[in-house]
Amino acid sequence: MKQPNEVLFYIGTYNTKENEAILLGALNKDTGEMRVLGGNKGIENPSYLAVNSSGTVVYAASEQDEGEVHAFSVEAGTGALQPLGSRSTDGGAPCYVSVSPQGDYIFVANYTGGNVNAFPVQADGSLGEMSSQVKHEGSGIRQDRQDAPHTHSIIPDSTGERVLVCDLGIDQVLIYRLEDGKLVTHREVNLPPGSGPRHLAVHPSNQWIYLINELNSTITVFANNEQQGDLKLLQSISSLPEHYPAGSDDTAADIHVSPCGRFLYASNRGHDSIGLFYINAETGLLEAGDWVMSGGRTPRNFAITSGMLLAANQDSSNIVSFRIDKESGRLIPTGNELEVTAPVCLVPLPV
Hints:
Helices cover about 0% and strands about 55% of the residues. The protein has strands at about 5-15, 20-30, 35-40, 45-50, 55-60, 70-75, 80-90, 95-100, 105-110, 115-120, 130-135, 150-155, 160-165, 170-180, 180-190, 195-200, 210-215, 220-225, 230-240, 250-255, 265-270, 275-280, 285-295, 300-305, 310-315, 320-325, 330-340, 345-350.
């Protein structure tokens, strides 16, 4: 049962459908202490989760060879999840799911399939038949990771009229228009060869979009012209400390902007850190600030909620909480961690 000083969040893990692979967590807003309230079986490797804006439905990508996306209704008050069925993604290893601002469509990126999907949302939150699918083509310079297209994320813009797709395999961010449920190519934005674009974070003002590149551990800053559906490259900066000798194990993972819009955070696997970057209020450009160890190994994902940052360390099977200093943005360990098998996605339930 949730306590008054707690906020709820969902945990996606790499686990089998026989185990509770999606967990419901509670975070104490005062101390940073975390606990597990319950979980859901029946879904394989729910590696990415998304919740609609009203907090009534959760969607989960099931990362397996024959990919699926699942829908769950959220029980008011408790946060418990009730299954609403699933759909095939017609692709392999779906690793990202997002919800349109209006809640009428969800979007899925399939890593090994190199394809993205759109599904209409029914009145009860369940999913209708796939309304659109786009398959990418091409490859990149890294034959170990870029032998084919690998779509890694897909997010809608604030209007819901377009979606932005990161394709790690072909070093592009692709922009699609959503027209009557169909994804229509709008624009392609090229990144330096070997970048490996992974995730995007949109500034609260919508003026800037920040891209984390997995393979070369950089952050790209774009000016966001949402009216035209275009991105203009402004800056590229390393996600790692200046004098750190990056190796093959160093791959950037997740990226988020603080709700106040002053700070950007990025996670680094290998270095096993969360980097802090200061956002210039006039230009959107980044200045490196600080790096804090994530408290475990392989921080694949993290979430910001209630003045805290929660880091999901996949390979050490723990979640670590940090308090965010309001003035400096620096991360202060609370001393609390939660043991969870292979946590790879954290999504707060909207308050």
